[in-house]
């Protein structure tokens, strides 16, 4: 894992967006994996800015979201289908026919999940996956004790996740209890992964994911097995990393040819 610690959320968004933009420039039909939540918003804003200034074309891009709440109608403002449309599809001008979100209202959820994994595979697999991380270490909605090789499926949201996401809903009880999420195995199939995290509440999860044992207790730790994972953090999220000085030193001395 490459660990990059930056001063501000804006710098994190800018650097992560540069990585995504480079992938798209190298492969205009790139498949981009999208996360929802607060962490990646600066990435999407930066990419939208590049598109507006004609520095980036996303005409050929296809995108797959990580997860969706179960039972929330697509039109609900907090369904991830709505969030992705508002935060990503519209601002970047992506072709809506090329943007996919798991179906949390399917009659047969299991079949819908299998179709979702098949659609990702049929698109050629994810070239670059954007990730956030939950305070409990989840990526996607793979809550602690998720199988490290899981595929897209139904999950019960952890109580902490429901409490954390209550800020998006009128009342805490309105947060759905279940979701469909790409599995850890699905996420690990992405050719490149960029995880962004900001704030002290993410510090324990980041420490476990990066320096802890690989364990389903902290699902994000599975990324230690990924051949090309970059974590871009602010100082607060990096606060509990014991090798912080080493990560700073490594990034400061990164050879020019390895920079992006
Ligand atoms: C969202 C997702 C989650 C979030 C995580 C962090 O699609 O898959 O793993 O990335 O819950 O959420 P924020 O960024 O809101 O702190």
Polypeptide structure, described:
Helices cover 33% and strands 16% of the residues. The model has no long low-confidence stretch (mean pLDDT 97). Helix 1 packs across helix 2. It is globular and about 55 Å long. It has helices at 9-26, 41-52, 80-92, 109-122, 159-165, 184-188, 203-211, 244-252; strands spanning 2-6, 31-34, 62-65, 67-69, 99-100, 128-131, 153-156, 178-181, 193-197, 229-234. The chain is built from 8 helices and 10 strands. It has a 7-stranded parallel β-sheet with strand order 1-10-9-6-2-3-5. Strand 2 (31-34), helix 2 (41-52) and strand 3 form a beta-alpha-beta unit. It has 260 residues and is α/β, with parallel strands linked by helices. The relative contact order is 0.17. Bound molecules: fructose -6-phosphate. Fructose -6-phosphate binds at residues 35-39, 66-67, 132-134, 138-141. Fructose -6-phosphate is lined by residues 35-39, 66-67, 132-134, 138-141.
């Amino acid at each position: 894992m490459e660990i990059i610690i930056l001063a501000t959320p804006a710098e994190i968004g800018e650097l992560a967006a540069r990585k995504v933009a480079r992938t798209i420039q190298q492969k205009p039909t790139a498949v981009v994996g999208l996360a929802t939540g607060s962490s990646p918003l600066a990435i999407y804003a930066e990419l939208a800015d590049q598109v507006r200034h004609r520095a980036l074309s996303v005409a050929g891009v296809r995108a797959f979201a990580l997860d969706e709440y179960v039972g929330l109608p697509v039109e609900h403002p907090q369904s991830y289908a709505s969030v992705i449309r508002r935060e990503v599809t519209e601002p970047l001008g992506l072709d809506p026919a090329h943007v996919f979100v798991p179906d949390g209202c399917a009659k047969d959820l299991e079949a819908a999940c299998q179709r979702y994994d098949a659609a990702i595979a049929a698109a050629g697999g994810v070239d670059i996956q954007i990730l956030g991380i939950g305070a409990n270490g989840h990526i996607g909605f793979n809550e602690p004790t998720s199988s490290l090789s899981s595929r897209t499926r139904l999950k019960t949201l952890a109580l902490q996740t429901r409490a954390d996401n209550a800020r998006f809903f009128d009342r805490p009880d309105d947060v759905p209890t279940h979701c469909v999420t790409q599995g850890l195995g699905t996420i690990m199939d992405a050719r490149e992964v960029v995880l962004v995290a900001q704030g002290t509440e993410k510090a324990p999860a980041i420490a476990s994911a990066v320096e802890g044992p690989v364990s389903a207790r902290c699902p994000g730790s599975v990324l230690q097995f990924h051949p090309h994972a970059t974590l871009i953090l602010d100082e607060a999220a990096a606060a509990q990393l014991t090798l912080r000085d080493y990560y700073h030193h490594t990034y400061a001395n990164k050879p020019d040819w390895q920079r992006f």
